[in-house]
Amino acid sequence: MLNISPYSIKDKVNTTKYRSFALFKEIRADKVLKRLLIIFFLLFLGVSFLPWTQNIRGNGQVTALSPSQRPQELNSMIDGRIEEWYAQEGDLVEKGDTILFIREIKDEYFDPQLLERTQEQITAKRQSLGFYEEKIDALGSQIKAIEENRELKLQQAKNYLRQAELKIQADSIDYEAAQINLEIAEKQFGRQKELYEEGLKSLTDLEMRNNKYQEALAKKISMESKLLSSRNQYLNAKIELNSIYNEYTNKLQKARSDLFSTRSMLQDAQAEVVKMENQLTNYQVRFGFYYVLAPQKGYITRAVSTGIGENIKAGESLVSIMPADIDYAVEMYILPRDLPLFNVGNEVRLIFDGWPSIVFSGWPIITYGTFGGEVVAIDRFISDNGKYRILIAQDPEEPEWPEALRVGGGTSGLALLDIVPVWYEIWRQINGFPPNFYTPENTGQSSEANKLQGKAKK
Questions:
Q1: Helix, strand, coil shares of the chain as percentages rounded to 5?
Q2: Beta bridge partners of 322
Q3: Would you say residue 454 has pLDDT above 60?
Q4: Which residue spans within 122-237 are E strands per DSSP?
Q5: Which of helix, strand or coil describes residue 191?
Q6: What are the angstrom distances between the C-alpha of 62 and each of 71, 321, 333, 384?
Q7: Under a CB-based contact definition with an 8 Å cutoff, are residues 392 and 412 in contact?
Q8: 155 φ, ψ to 5°?
Q9: DSSP 237-252
Q10: Which pairs with CB-CB distance under 8 Å and at least 24 residues apart come from 178-184?
Q11: pLDDT at position 409
Q12: Of the candidates 399, 352, 394, the residue with the CA atom closest to the CA atom of residue 374
């Protein structure tokens, strides 16, 4: 029993008539506590058998699915000076629209008729090519004529040489005959002289025989001189043959040397023409760089180089442009320990900055404000932040992502894995075990990525 204070008014005043006394009524706290503990235990026991979806959380940002749709900067291809702007920040430009005009600052390109003058030089050089070709044809004809003349002259000289050989043979025969006649006349003169000494022949007969002997001797000397003259003619014909061969060979070599020199000059002229044509093409291409054109339809987001008359260098950024038609994607970064759990085609729930959401990570069915996505690519090398990057595209079977998305916006993702009981997930978290490994049916990254990208573009 409770001890009643001597100052209690319970027996003097009816406390049931007053509400304030009921607020201070004594209760049994132990019974309430027991009931609460039992209720919480039964509730926890019931919840522990509910299904829980294992997930991996990661942060990232909105990007474009295709590299060609991501923000890009337009750079100056040449050194120059900004002359005029044709677009402002925030303007929508079509492909091929002029954004700004650049003026030349190098003195070798100042000539306003540079292209026309270069073309005239090429035309003149081409005419010289025609002259060289005509000279080559003329030299070829000249070489052919020299070869024909040489053959004719050599044949004529050979005929002269043959005539000299035959004349030597004929003069040799005449010389031999004269020599035999001289020997006969000498013998006859000797016998005539013996008969004259014996008195059998007269002095007249002896003188006549002596005269015959002198005629034979003179003829023999004449034939010998003629033979020597024929031999000299043969040597002269032989020398003439060699002289003709050397003369025409020198002419032929000189003509061939001129031909080779002309061909070399033709090749040099052709190389010069090619060089000048290449230079003309470079001029034309360079003049095209004066106008900076939009590579695709998009919005001018920021002008890096501003003002009129500002000098810029080749490769320097001029303006950044954001493509207008974008297939949005999300690049999310995950820890290396979670990388084996990801495969192409995994389902991911995304939370975009600026869109309210109520998230129950283990019960995606009752989650509100998230958007569906599928993994389309996984990097094969680690990023600078020590995590791996995965690329997530819109799930074509889920509601479309918000139209007001912008590249660079923050996102938070939940990669959904296996479904387990709540008690198992609590036990796994306490022990620090990894989530269950879940492999989808199609794990081909390249083919699945291309398929999902095609669906996203549609």
A1: 50, 20, 30
A2: 299
A3: no
A4: none
A5: helix
A6: 12, 17, 12, 18
A7: no
A8: -65, -40
A9: HHHHHHHHHHHHHHHH
A10: 178/216, 178/219, 178/220, 178/222, 178/223, 178/224, 179/220, 179/223, 181/216, 181/219, 181/220, 182/213, 182/216, 182/217, 182/219, 182/220, 184/216
A11: 87
A12: 394
CA 139 centroid distance within chain? 43
Per-residue tokens: 117:
């003058």
* Type of residue numbered 47: V
pLDDT tens digits for 37-94?
888 888 877 777 777 666 777 888 998 888 888 888 888 888 888 888 888 888 899 9
**CB-based contact 255:142 (threshold 8 Å):** yes
Which residues, 6 or more positions from 368, have their beta carbon under 8 angstroms from its beta carbon?
357, 358, 359
The count of other CB atoms within 10 Å of the CB of residue 264 is 11
Q: Quote the distance between the C-alpha of residue 160 and its chain's center.
A: 70
pLDDT digits (tens, 9 = 90+) for 133-171: 999 999 999 999 998 998 998 898 889 888 888 888 888
**What is the maximal distance between C-alpha atoms in the chain?**
232
Considering 139-143, 184-188, 347-351, 406-410, the range whose residues carry the highest mean pLDDT is 139-143
Confidence band (pLDDT; 50, 70, 90) for 23?
low
d(CA 392, CA 395): 9
Read off the pLDDT of residues 217-266 as tens digits, 9 standing for 90 and up: 888 888 888 888 888 988 988 888 898 889 888 989 999 999 999 999 98
CA angle 267, 272, 278 (to 5 degrees): 130
Distance CA 214, CA 182 (A): 8
Residue found by looking up tokens 């299904």 in the block: 51
pLDDT in tens, 389-405: 999 998 888 888 888 88
Cβ 100 vs Cβ 84: under 8 Å: yes
3-state secondary structure of 386: coil
